[in-house]
Specification:
globular, about 260 residues, 10 helices, about 35% helix, 4-stranded antiparallel sheet, Rossmann fold, 12 strands, alpha/beta
Length: about 260
């Protein structure tokens, strides 16, 4: 679980986040939605202790974030970054195994269980065929799966994902988000991620938090938050809700 109360963040003297309070629960997918520069990534960087907020409290699994050592934090929390530019051509299997560092330690050797866990993750993500391939030579969608696999190898309770569908085609966007929702349900994990597409949030989110200019505009069930009024207010775009089978999606007007 993630709990944030009255969070404020200033960078170079400028306000970035103001009075942000939220809760992300186990077994669910919470989406941060908002225009560029609204503070979504900055909020994630506060949650993983990269930024120190000027005010407020952050708790992960009922533990105060500042009280956690880096090792303890790595056992609770895993992060999938927006962009990842690999330097070394590690095999995919080795990249996932790197997620075990917080459990094994820098100067210890992985055990049989660690290697078994990696093989289980490869099977879960259906990427066994990539196991021996260099991470530097697989597609963007495949890399996202590997990064999720590395996070799962940490055995965390909370996962932060910064635009996990960035640079992916439509099929891979759907596949990644479907996997995230299944993992949240099956493993009772807390997922908090940023997205740009409100329709993807409508399809896959359990809870949506709408950010604009560093403040929460609305939060709650996706259909309560993603409304024509809210979209017009923060994106300055006139939209309408249209029926798509049993679902409702956002469509810009006059196109």
């Amino acid at each position: 679980m993630i709990e944030v109360e009255n969070l404020r963040l200033r960078l170079n003297g400028q306000p970035v986040l103001e009075r942000v309070s939220l809760t992300a629960r186990p077994g669910s997918v919470t989406v941060l939605l908002g225009p560029n520069g609204s503070g979504k990534t900055s909020l994630l960087l506060c949650l993983c202790a990269h930024y120190r907020p000027s005010q407020g409290e952050i708790r992960l699994c009922q533990q105060s974030l500042p009280s956690l050592s880096y090792r303890s934090l790595a056992r609770l929390l895993a992060v999938v970054p927006q962009d990842h530019n690999p330097v070394f051509p590690y095999q995919v299997r080795e990249v996932i195994l790197l997620g075990r560092i917080s459990r094994v330690g820098f100067f210890s050797q992985p055990t049989g269980r660690d290697y078994e866990l990696v093989e289980d993750i490869l099977a879960l993500l259906q990427i066994q065929h990539l196991a021996d391939k260099p991470y530097t030579r697989i597609s963007g969608g495949e890399r996202q799966l590997v990064l999720i696999g590395r996070c799962l190898a940490q055995e965390p309770q909370v996962l932060l994902l910064d635009e996990p569908t960035n640079h992916l085609d439509f099929k891979n966007q759907y596949a990644i988000l479907k996997l995230i929702k299944e993992l949240a349900r099956q493993r009772n994990l807390t997922f908090l991620m940023t997205l740009h597409d409100p329709n993807m949030a409508l399809l896959f989110a359990d809870h949506v938090i709408l950010l604009a200019e560093g403040r929460i505009v609305s939060q709650g069930h996706p259909l309560e938050v993603i409304t024509p009024e809210n979209m017009a207010a923060i994106y300055h775009l006139d939209v309408e809700m249209v029926a798509a089978g049993p679902r409702r999606l956002v469509c810009p007007k006059n196109i």
